[in-house]
Specification:
The protein is α+β, with helices and mostly antiparallel strands and 279 residues long. The protein has 7 helices and 7 strands.
């Protein structure tokens, strides 16, 4: 439509007839746009949305059981019959075991992605300095690379859900450490600023970086710009970050260049919608 999109049309429809209902059909829909449609009155989508979430959650749980079964028996086969299997047989068993483990990790990532969509938000005024420091300590506790320097500048506060924003910090800082670990001295700078009605935060690293022509793939589920053999992970983390931030009326983006580091940024409203009424 030339003058408005579907969400705006649903919002305007009650001004014409308060009894009008709405069904949204689009070739470019996401869960985020479905939630927006529900919020402005497209009630017909609610049942399908709940069914989809329930189906995804159930399938993910049901898939994990046989995978763990396969992995467990592969472990036992290697342990009990390794000498009989020989070098090639043992290698094949390990391929089965590692493949089962990797798929299980992908399913766990899908569950986390699903939870990031369904979990109710509890908005409050956040001390971003405390959240970033706590996430940094957690990331360093499991980091195994060369000694890293992490500088945390004074971060302005923002409104948001502390639990999921803590997850955002953990993911971005953990990624920065992971992709900088091949430097002799990994260096990460965490900063924040206020621009207009947004509070913007950045995590800058001196790591492997990425090609900006592929930047649109960064926040997709299971999308990776680097080989899983070189850098561990399932490719779900940044998709979860994107979902968390957009659910709180924010945005997230990335800048980088090959072998020149990356700068991950996210923005939250200075005052979250509806928060002012509670203050």
């Amino acid at each position: 439509m030339p003058d408005m999109d579907g969400i705006e049309l649903i919002s305007a429809a009650p001004n014409i007839d308060k009894h009008l209902g709405a069904i949204v059909m689009t070739g470019h829909g996401t869960i985020d746009t479905a939630v927006q449609a529900l919020q402005v009155g497209a009630l017909e989508l609610a049942a399908a949305y709940r069914d989809l979430e329930s189906f995804s959650y159930s399938i993910s749980h049901d898939l994990r059981a046989p995978l763990l079964f396969v992995k467990g028996f592969a472990d036992m086969l290697e342990e009990r019959f390794g000498p009989v299997l020989g070098e090639e047989g043992t290698h094949l068993v390990r391929v089965i075991r590692d493949g089962s483990h990797n798929m299980d990790q992908m399913i766990v990532g899908l569950l986390a992605f699903s939870r990031a969509t369904r979990q109710p938000l509890q908005l409050s005024h956040l001390d971003m300095n405390a959240l970033a420091r706590a996430a940094t300590a957690e990331a360093l506790a499991v980091y195994e690379g060369p000694p890293a320097r992490i500088d945390i500048e004074d971060l302005p506060p923002a409104d948001g859900d502390s639990t999921v924003i803590r997850h955002v910090w953990s993911n971005l800082i953990g990624n920065a450490l992971k992709y900088s670990a091949r430097r002799s001295t990994p260096h990460i700078v965490i900063s924040g600023r206020i621009e207009g009605n947004e509070t913007i935060y950045a995590v800058q690293d001196n790591g492997v970086g990425f090609d900006m022509t592929c930047a649109d793939k960064l926040f997709g589920v299971f999308k990776r710009l680097h080989s899983a053999d070189d850098y561990a992970g399932t490719g779900v983390g940044l998709a979860i970050v994107h979902r968390i931030i957009t659910r709180q009326q924010g945005r997230v983006w990335a800048q980088g260049a090959p072998d020149a580091g990356a700068r991950m940024q996210f923005a939250l409203p200075v005052k979250a919608p509806g928060q002012a009424a509670r203050d």
